[in-house]
Amino acid sequence: MTEEPVNVNEFRELARQALPKMYYDFYTGGAEDQYTLKENEEAFRRIIIQPRILRNVRSIDLSTTVLGYNISMPVMIAPTSLQKLANPEGEIATARAASACNTIMVLSTSSTYSLEEVAACCDAIRFFQLYVYKRRDISAKLVQRAENNGYKAIVLTVDSPRLGRREADVKNKLVVPPLKNLEGLLPTKFVSDEKGSGLAALASGTLDASFCWEDITWLKSITNLPILIKGVLTREDAIKALEVGVDGMIVSNHGGRQLDYSPATISVLEEVVDAVGGKVPVLVDGGIQRGTDIFKAMALGAQAVLVGRAVVYGLAAKGEKGVNRVLEMLKEELELTMVLSGCCSVKEISRSHVRTKHDQQLRSML
Q1: What pTM does this model have?
Q2: 254 is catalytic
Q3: Which of 254, 296, 325, 353 is flagged as catalytic?
Q4: CATH number at residue 135
Q5: pLDDT digits (tens, 9 = 90+) for 122-146
């Protein structure tokens, strides 16, 4: 591809051309049959936008707030691990692009630059994504380091007591580079055996499968930062999350990389939003490729969306410039969608602007 990419899918093709197969497969792959991976995107396509006409849309405001932090658009950068596999500047380039675009970056525990290095590289608003390890003192030290280095929230990933079976990584015998955040705390180099990937070996050897709802109290006791939980997919878990006092939720299925045949995130977003009832912000990730996808998520109640793979595609293709362009591309597409739908600000995007498959079924019954 010689022309400049004009959408996220074209960045994906550039990433495919730029990356070794092992790394491209790692970033793009999902669990087992990859049903959920594909459904994350397909479910967006079943939602129809219902535009309003003859509105004054001369001036459009895409800005919003998340946990009180002002950002230029309702698009954040999802925690994505091992970014140095995509580009030598890895998470540093991504953080700088987030700063340039005035949005929030969620740094993965499994980053290839340390949280201190990322904090020092620019003034981006940063959240820190946390896994809980069998040795709780390690997780506590990571939280303390994040707090001491200006991270504004903890994003607790709750859908990974074990790693999902990512068969491309098994076949490729994925090699995991050293994880800078864990240096001096855990072995940072895990080698795959004949049955799996290095990442699976790392996860099975270190993650705490006993972590449960009652342990949120422990996490709250060791930090003053707000806590969002990432991995909510049901009304029941949303209600439980409110009961234990979290500060926000991310509707996520880990990009289709954990439990295959779990629901597409956009298909359960409204259920979670209704259960939460506005008490805390609800965000969503998974399958977001277009500004129209962002608009649909906002209409169904999300305060913002998170994008992961799209950012990595930009990073692999063109480094920091590529991440910046992906974010600007999504912003431009969202702005155009809002103009053509008759919305001057993200606050004006409402449930009446979309029709879901469920809505269509109800209409057919009338």
Answers
A1: 0.94
A2: yes
A3: 254
A4: 3.20.20.70
A5: 999 999 999 999 999 999 999 999 9
